[in-house]
Amino acid sequence: MRGCASVSPTPTAASSQHPKLIGGFPSKIINKRRAVSVRAGSSSNSEKEKEKENENESSRKQQQSLSLDDVNPVGLGRKSRQIFDEVWRKFSGLGQISRTTRADDLESLDALLIREGPMCEFAIPGAQNTTVLVVGATSRIGRILIRKLMLRGYTVKALLRKADQQVIDSLPRSVEIVIGDVGDTSSLTSAVEGCNKIIYCATARSSITGDLFRVDHLGVSNLTKAFQDYNNKLAQLRAGKSSKSKLLLAKFKSSDSLIGWQVRQGTYFQDAVASKYDAGMDAKFEFTDTGDAVFSGYVFTRGGYVELSKKLSLPLGYTLDRYEGLVLSVGGNGRSYVLILEAGPSADTTQSKLYFARITTKVGFCRVRVPFSSFRAVKPDDPPLDPFLVHTLTIRFEPRRQRPTEGPSGTRQDLRSFKLILEYIKALPTGQETDFVLVSCTGLGVEPTRREQVLKAKRAGEESLRRSGLGYTIVRPGPLKEEPGGQRALIFDQGNRISQGISCADVADICVKALHDSTARNKSFDVCYEYVAEQGRELYELVAHLPDKANNYLTPALSVLEKNT
How many CA atoms does the CB half-sphere of 31 hold within 13 Å? Predict the structure, then answer.
């Protein structure tokens, strides 16, 4: 009964007529029981009781004295965050091995993680069952990223190039350290084992071309291959195929691979006058002596077109509804083409419907990703494309809507002729979440003398990630700043138009949120602070926002951006 008495106020003459209910009992009864217990005890117990009563009296007076800070919403918000952060720090340390708390750890957490307003989110569904490999754990973003992942319940592995004891001691004890080099494929096998997702935020330490190539290009390529090999190994153990593997629809490696492809000609309309001066059209599909499958020809007929078509033959048990789009590895003279899918009952092609999407190639070789969502029905009244019913693929060339291009000597090319070299056509696997988050850069803040070579290596690494078939998210932040995150509004853009910097904590938070956000899958975007020209309006502060699971700014920001970029 002392526990109840210690929190109950002492009854006064005014309260004796209408006693308050505390714990379901009148305060008079509780005080009487407390008095009985005091008399029954020793004198030392009575002294302790008096000391407790004095403490309670002083605390009650402090609670009754209210100041302006106590009702200020700014102060309330800050106090609530401090209390919550302290409780969470103690709670998260319960399951860890006992260790000496270092002052620099607490300072870094206070400066970079705690004072972040809307960026704090500790409850993420699925985090406890997810292992994340962080490459570049000692970078400016990586140091914050690792602690954010741990606070949210992820299992974290950090890839280090060498076993530097000072570097290892700077990382939390619960982080699993893996020694390996992104430039060495054999050392990455053990690094990706047991991992579900990868965040790559490593940067080259010098502007030497070889160093940039090894970290920004070759490193990304090697890690994606190692991760795909690991997923395929798991799939084989399950007697199946990895869900992250692309489905091969056509590979043009020999003359036999041309079997089944048909070259056809046609016109959109008939022009009796133009037909008198019609120079005709012609096209062919052949396997050359150089080992290339080439679809080439010309179309001089007004309203004419030529196309290459084949009925798809998928492996037993596979349908295209399990995939989200197509990827074509092609080369040529930079023409644009129309990709046509024919969908409907395979037994009755008369009920088939046509869907088209325009693709643009580059001079030389390139890879073109075409999501199924970009296909539109030829007839407006037809329903949207159902990949499950697709049975025929067609590549069409038409002279209209061709962009003028210059030849090697600077002369204008005839837009009515074309040449398309086909390497392969694959279906991209679908998925709800990102597998690989890559932190790239926009080029802002890089010295002009080395900006071109840095961007060249970064873009090459991005392209190798897109070709891998993994679900990816490519983040291109502006110049990084060492300041707390969550203090300013952010801009997400795909037009290479940003001009501001961004804090390392904000970039780390974006990477964490992108892991389980379906809108971030297969998207590349630039991000920076919002820029407002007027003085005094560039800061956005949430003064009393508690950590909230519903605070997801990334989904609405990325939902309007283009996919497969």
Answer: 14
CB 367 within 8 A of CB 467: yes
pLDDT above 90 for 221 = yes
pLDDT at 16 over 90: no
Q: How far apart are CA 423 and CA 21, in angstroms?
A: 82
Element (H, E) at 312: none
**553 contacts: CB under 8 Å, gap ≥ 6:** 118, 490
Report which of 255, 243, 388 is spatially closest to residue 312, judged by C-alpha positions: 388
Residue 351's pLDDT is 86
Query: Would you say 176 and 168 are in contact if contact means Cβ atoms under 8 Å apart?
Result: no
What lies within 8 Å, CB to CB, of 133 at 6+ separation is 157, 158, 159, 178, 191, 192, 195, 197, 198, 199
pTM of the predicted model, to two decimals?
A: 0.63
Tell me the C-alpha distance between 6 and 41, whole Å. 17
**Identity of residue 333:** N
Residues 525/474, Cβ–Cβ less than 8 Å = yes
Token duo for residue 194: 């047991």
Cα separation, 528 vs 526, whole angstroms:
7
Of 506, 476, 512, the closest CA to residue 494 belongs to 476
Cα dihedral 85, 88, 89, 92 in deg (nearest 10): -160
- Convert the pLDDT of each residue in 442-496 to its tens digit: 888 888 888 889 999 999 999 899 888 888 999 999 999 999 888 888 889 888 8
Q: How far is it, in rounded angstroms, from Cα 382 to Cα 149?
A: 46
Q: Is the pLDDT of residue 93 over 60?
A: no
Place of tokens 């914050």: 144
Pairing of strands 131-135, 155-160: parallel
Which two tokens mark 184?
Answer: 């060495």
* Spatial distance between the Cα atoms of 210 and 207, rounded to a whole number of angstroms: 8
362-384: string of b/e by CB count within 10 Å (b at 16+)?
eeeeebbbbbbebbeeeeeeeee
Whether residue 17 has pLDDT greater than 60: no
Instruction: Give alpha helix (H) positions in 421-503.
Output: 448-467
Backbone angles phi, psi at 304, to 5 degrees: -95, 165
pLDDT tens track for 25-42: 343 333 333 333 333 334
Nearest of 545, 465, 557, 467 to residue 510 by alpha carbon: 557
Mean pLDDT of the chain: 77
Residues 6+ apart with CB under 8 A from 341: 354, 355, 356, 375, 385, 390, 392, 393, 394
Torsion of CA 283, 287, 292, 294, to 10 degrees: 10
Cα–Cα–Cα angle for 277, 279, 284, rounded to 5 degrees = 160
Label residue 237 by pLDDT band (50, 70, 90).
confident
Candidates 199, 217, 173; CA nearest to 508 is 199
The two three-digit tokens of residue 451, written as one number: 């900006």
